[in-house]
Amino acid sequence: MLAYCGFPLASGAPMAILILFGLVTLIVIAGLRVIDQQTLAIVETFGKFSRVLTPGLNWIIPGVQRIACLMDLRVQELSAQVEVKTRDNMFVTLPVAIMVRVIPERAADAFYQLASPQEQVKTWVLNTLRSSTAAMTLMNMYEDRDELAQQMQASLAERMGTYGYEIVSVLIDQPTVSEEVQHAFNSVIASERKREAAVQEAEAKRILIVGEARAEAESQQLRAEGLARARTVLAASLTEAIAQAKGSGISENDIMYLLLETNRLDTVKYASEKGKLVLMDLRAPASQAGLQIPLD
Predict the structure, then answer these.
(1) Nearest to residue 96, comparing CAs of 177, 170, 176, 151?
(2) CA quadruple 53, 58, 62, 67: dihedral, nearest 10
(3) DSSP assignment, residue 115?
(4) I want to staple 173 with a disulfide (CB 3.0 to 4.6 A). Which of 95, 102, 223, 287 is the partner?
(5) What is the Cα–Cα distance from 67 to 69, expressed in whole angstroms?
(6) pLDDT averaged over every residue in the chain
(7) C-beta neighbour count of 30 within 10 angstroms
(8) Strand, helix or coil at 107?
(9) Using CB atoms within 10 A of its CB, is residue 100 exposed (0-12), middle (13-18) or buried (19+)?
(10) pTM, entire model
């Protein structure tokens, strides 16, 4: 008689045990599941959500449970070309890239609540962009892309968070317009740059003119002060010379004639130094009256 673990067995028992052991082994092997890193598995029992399998070796009940979906936890990129209309009636195409990933703790919500996550995200992006850009001009859209991306990320994060998705970042590339609009836009920018350059150039000229005027005014003032001091010194010296002449017995008429003659000779000397002047000596003797002396 055969025995198993000290207990006597009937003659047909070994075969039944072997068959039972084989079935159990097959069931265990059939239920083994290996889940890759950065992946979660949604398990259903008779079509109803049961649990979430984490990376590593897992086991499900064959025939009773099944893996409904494998959820990738890596950051995924969703791209979209969104056509919008600006406040100045320009139709613009905005290339948008959205970085999104599944929240591990809410993997079941991410699978069951959204039938087509990519398409629904693109629809929300379209609606959000159209509402945000309706009040923007084409110039604002080029300059405020980062602010627009932040607004989109905040809006999408609030919506997608309820469905188990996290919006990592939103990137908006340079707006695309038709060649005619691009040419006109470039012309407007060039005109504004030229206007700014003209304003800056005019301001520089104004500063230069004001500086030259101030310098000229200061120069004239210094020249006038110097001339006044020179005349003061000259008057003092003439007064002293006249007093000495009077003391020597020279008459006032002779003194006056001497001064006028000295001035006349100084004038002739000055004219000869400058050149290309015509000098008429009105105080010459009667025989030389009206004589014009060209000075080259």
Answers:
(1) 170
(2) 30
(3) S
(4) 95
(5) 6
(6) 80
(7) 13
(8) helix
(9) buried
(10) 0.53
